[in-house]
Amino acid sequence: MLKPYLNANVIEAGCDEAGRGCLAGPVFAAAVILPPDFNDPLMDDSKQLSHKQRIQLRKVIEHYAIDWAVASLSNQEIDEINILNASIQAMHIAIGKLNKEKPQHLLIDGNRFKPYPGIPHTCLVKGDSKFLSIAAASILAKTHRDEFMVNISKEFPFYGWNINKGYPTQKHRESIAKHGTTPYHRLSFRLL
Predict the structure, then answer these.
(1) For residues 103 and 120, what is the distance between their CA atoms, to the nearest angstrom?
(2) In terms of Cα–Cα distance, which of 101, 133, 136 is closest to 119?
(3) Highest CATH level, class, for 12-179
């Protein structure tokens, strides 16, 4: 069972990102504030869910969340500032886009984060499998990113992004070797 919050009677936003290990496309991050009594038996870390379950839960989260926001940083920005900094910056942008309710505490998936001005945070390794708000953020970041990758795969069909979403599958690497890179590839990553 995922926990509803870390601190009782505090407005908490869960934050997570998607696409850190990809060879192409942006990194996406989401911030989600759920009602303290929110519950959905299906809720889990996005990696444990099927595509269909993630899409179903995204609708639930976007409908019932007190507030939610999604942000992304492009592959060029990732190449400039590195993937860790880009992931953290995308989370900061998503937190800044929360406009219905200001969080009093941030629950961050993972072990690295740069403090967001004026809001304390707690880093939680595997937080997306422990807390509802982080799981919700992981689902939003993943589904919004997957949607983006499916759309750009129409522009560059050779790379199979509609299936691999930019992750380093054998087919993706073989396509880079055969067709070269695209404007969406992260040139600072080892592509081959």
Answers:
(1) 9
(2) 101
(3) alpha beta
Q: For the CA atoms of 41, 47, 52, 55, what is the dihedral angle to 10 degrees?
A: 80
- Tens of each residue's pLDDT in the chain, 192 residues: 899 999 999 999 999 999 999 999 999 999 999 999 999 999 988 889 999 999 999 999 999 999 999 999 999 999 999 999 999 999 999 999 999 999 999 999 999 999 999 999 999 999 999 999 999 999 999 999 999 999 999 999 999 999 999 999 999 999 999 999 999 999 999 998
CA 67 to the chain's CA centroid: 16
Predicted TM-score (pTM) of the model is: 0.97
Domain regions of the chain by residue span: 12-179
Cα–Cα distance between 17 and 35 in angstroms, integer?
21
Q: Which amino acid is at 66?
A: I
Query: Which amino acid is it at 97?
Result: K
The C-alpha atoms of residue 59 and residue 133 are separated, in whole angstroms, by: 15
Helix (H, G, I), strand (E, B) or coil at 74: coil
Beta strands in the chain (DSSP E): 12-18, 27-33, 67-73, 105-109, 121-124
Q: Token digits for 161?
A: 């992004």
What's the length of the chain? 192
